[in-house]
Amino acid sequence: MAERMHDTEKGFHRKPSSDGPEKPDYTLHDTTIYDTTIGNVKNTGKATSWGVKVRQWIRTSGAEEGGIERVPSELRTNQSPRDLFSLFMSANVGTATLAFGALGPGLFALGWWDSFLCLLFFNIIGSIPPALMATMGPKLGLRTMVLPRYSFGWYPAKIIAFLNLTNQIGWAMVNAIAGAEILYDVGNTKLPMSVAVLIIGLVAIVVGMFGYKQVHQWERYSWMVMLVCFCIIAGFGAKHFQNVPMGSGATEISDVLSFGTTIIGFQISWAPIAADYGVYMREDRKPFQVFIWTFSGLFVSQFFIEILGAALMTTVTNNDVFTAAYESAGIGGLTGQIFHGYGPGVVGFGKFIQAILSFSVVAVVIANIYSLGLNVQAISNHLLVIPRLVWSLTGGVIFLIAAVAGRNHLSAVMENFLNVIAYWLTPFLTIMFLEHILWRRGYAYDLSAWQDKQKLPLGLAAFPVFLVSTVLAILCMSQTWWVGPIALKVGNAPYGTDISWELALGATIIMYVPLRWLERKHFGR
Predict the structure, then answer these.
(1) Is residue 484 within 8 Å of 474, Cβ to Cβ?
(2) Is position 237 within any domain?
(3) Can you tell which superkingdom this protein's organism belongs to (predicted)?
(4) pTM for the whole structure
(5) Over the stretch 61-75, which tens digit does the pLDDT of each residue have?
């Protein structure tokens, strides 16, 4: 007989497997009653008829029914930490990462070797926070956006969840349009851009909304196919790559620091969802193993694909043909141009490779779709009544409609917007890890308190520090839409030098440690 858990875990069960490691079976046993706990008060009511039917359909379809509820030990499986390597490899071995690497020579006017060294060292630094966050999934069984409650408190944590929800929907739009642009170029503009966006978006929504198991299955193999395609591009493009010399002086320092900030920001944007993909692993998985597999997936994928992007961007140096290709179709134009000069057969083969690569963005969009459903539930306990699948589907439809409507102009606007609002990540993650290292060493979290605001901190230290440090980061930023006054003072006009993450990190440490000590001393939580 299925075991029954207490409170929000009540009614969940697992099915024994006789043919190998047990598999996640996170389904509600009782389809007519839902339980939610807010504070110390339990509200129990009859689920609506449509809610019952939705849950029955979820169960019969094999989708994941659970949301942000803690995954107890009874539901854990023998899932390997290697799955985190494949997940982050697949999500980053794609055309968006390739285009990002091209920013070194293209936007920041760096040469080949300084771009290479920036991508090497700043990717090492940027991979650490998401890898640390990923270790909390198996140890605690809690989704990423539930964890801020243990430092920010009940209500400020909802603001963090909303910020991350905006990130997930926005990046899903940007990535889907980026993949569709390549598919559009492959079809010689005969395939309408709207149809290209729909094709990529619908594939991602179907996989992402079904849940944990389906996401991991897709990510387990996607990177292998895409990596072969990128190796082919590297092989054909090698003879065109140029050793652009690096710069020197104050301008070079400014460009290196600004590019480094962008690299770190691109990496740490994975941290607010990193724990979502290990909650079904057994609690006895060693955090070091989880960290290493996650770190390796993030670093290897981004570093090697980004240096290929930087190398592709060097082809425009003193080469009118590649310059014209880039001005016409961006990084996709460069990947297509390298196949020219070998005959029509090779050009056709190149289009085939590009067509495959256009679907590389599916791997990252399905992660956006899956985690945004969890983010919605973290905003309000009342939203737990509606299954995560419904929220993922709703968010997916919203992102797809917006992406189709703004397919010609929205991508650049959204990317600039997302780059600006990403400056909250350094203060947020610094607070999270200070809390973990100084006050919750050994993963000493009260797991019964995850939705009990009476047991959680008040956020009197975390939220004010978060606001002040985020404002400081904004004053130090250098982006298309905004160059902060501190950034201008440090570097040369008109772009200045982006030192946002360095100052935000230092300010957060200086302010949070004493204020959190006082909060715990006076309130005991």
Answers:
(1) yes
(2) yes
(3) Eukaryota
(4) 0.88
(5) 778 888 899 999 888
